[in-house]
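INSTRUCTION: Work out how this chain folds

Fields: amino acid sequence; protein backbone structure tokens

Chain under study, with its fold:
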Amino acid sequence: MLMNFALGMATMAICLILQCLLLVAALRYYSGHWQEIPSLFLGGLRLVTGVMLVLIVGNIVQVSIWAVLFYLLGEFDTLQLALYHSGVNFATLGYGDIVMSEQHRILGPLEAIHGALMIGVSTAALSRAFGETLRVKTSPDAAHRD
């Protein structure tokens, strides 16, 4: 069980680093491109959508990393099944239609904890992007930009 816990924590750390890198890249891109936007509404929409897509891709990559771990541990016969199970864990759906063996069962809850945290991080980043869009849109100098 200790080895599974160590594997789970290492996977969480790798995924956290990935999410942080993507988040910083997305927010830097977002904050650095306001000068190039002819229309705040359309530009804001484009930038917020871009941030959202980057975060979604980041979450999907994390689901895939967990799935590869499950597959390499021999928990699933196909990567497709491992991806499905990983997605259910990450999103904390908990269908229970597919369960892992007792040997590696602790990895499911670890991924669920990680998924809940990463979905929260994604939500916070989107809230920041929306907030910045509204702040810039309603600032005194925004009137002459639209």
In short: The first helix runs from residue 2 to 32. The chain has a mean pLDDT of 85.
